[in-house]
């Protein structure tokens, strides 16, 4: 059952078209991702969902409420962790959560109970009296997410939750998202990390140039656009590239001096590529990165 629906959503910043007439539907208790490079429009879509900025045209309905008419009610049901570090550096971990809880008119006893639960959930109990500047990058992100959950929202929005984190801290955030999903939260995230979207998201919208290019589960999108396997070839010259392209049937994408040959049958794909090049080739599973390159002619950076 959909908890968020967008229809004909468009956003202009003066004359700049940032989001171009997109439709989307997000189900309750799923992890949904807006995936794309910086500047694609995904953060703008998120900001319209949680009423940070108004839509120019179209509408978004959040839990039965229109963002055009019910901004205050919508904000009370959503928790948001932005990509910017906006924690109060003069306060401790506990104080950051306490001050934020006051914005939601939580009673003191309820606030203390909720803070203790969040400190335990995010394994921040030993850091409760530590100031923000003395936290690692991963702990700051966990505190930002904890703060977004202080009012126990039905919907959690995470904007680029792991950007700038080391691999270990990134995995900690991933584990947190998975755990929240298992507890019935609807989690919506933006990311430009393809492996993050494949690891976490039940469904994704692939965003580029303000449009949604593809929509569905990662496996559905990969299978629909390019197939399940890829053989990546290198050719040293334009002539070599042309010679290889002439001898391999099917779907091929060229990036510089590399050819990406797509197919479902890994064995047949390997034999075709080896026959065309005369050397041993490796076939790997297709990824969302391959899909993006196929659709846009560029890699995600």
Automatic annotation (TrEMBL):
Keyword 4Fe-4S listed: no
Pfam families registered for this protein in UniProt: ABC_tran (PF00005)
Residue ranges of every copy of the ABC transporter domain listed in the record: 4-234
Sorted UniProt keywords: ATP-binding, Cell membrane, Membrane, Nucleotide-binding, Translocase, Transport
GO cellular component, one term: plasma membrane
A GO MF label: ATP hydrolysis activity
PROSITE patterns, alphabetized: ABC_TRANSPORTER_1, ABC_TRANSPORTER_2
Chief location of this protein within or outside the cell: membrane
Lineage summary: Archaea, Methanobacteriati, Methanobacteriota, Stenosarchaea group, Methanomicrobia
Record-linked Gene3D superfamilies: P-loop containing nucleotide triphosphate hydrolases
Protein family per UniProt: Belongs to the ABC transporter superfamily.
Compartments (UniProt record): Cell membrane
Name under which the protein is recorded: ABC transporter ATP binding protein
SUPFAM superfamilies registered for this protein in UniProt: P-loop containing nucleoside triphosphate hydrolases
InterPro entries, A to Z: AAA+_ATPase, ABC_transporter-like_ATP-bd, ABC_transporter-like_CS, ABC_transporter_ATP-binding, P-loop_NTPase
Record-linked SMART domains: AAA
